[in-house]
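Meet today's protein:

…
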Amino acid sequence: MSANIDGGPAFPTNGTSPYNKDGMSLRDWFAGKALQGLIANGKLPVDKRAVAQVAHEYADAMLRFRNQGGQL
């Protein structure tokens, strides 16, 4: 995904790291946080793909909100 869609790197480095310079995407970071909440809630569908899809839908909503300047 491009930076326009995925929010760019969640934890960019200054280029001195021997590891991935871009890190994970902000979209994946948001999805991981949403997934934590979904798991903590304990009411997950059995289909793990559906859980991943819901987590990414939350992430996409957070990115849209962020890109609109935090306006509802």
User: Anything to note?
Assistant: The chain has one domain: 3-67. Residues 3-67 form one domain.
